[in-house]
Amino acid sequence: LFRSDEAFLDDLERQGCLFFWEQGSPNTGQVLDRARNDLTGGRDPRRMASIAATGFGLTALCIADHRGYLPHAQIVERAKTALEWHLNSLPEVHGFFYHFTDIETGKRFPGAELSSIDTSLLLCGILTARAYFEDERIHSLAQQIYERVDWPWMLNGGKTFSMGWQPDTGFLNARWKTYCELMM
Question: I need a surface site. Which of 95, 97, 118, 181 has the fewest CB within 10 A?
Answer without folding.
Answer: 181
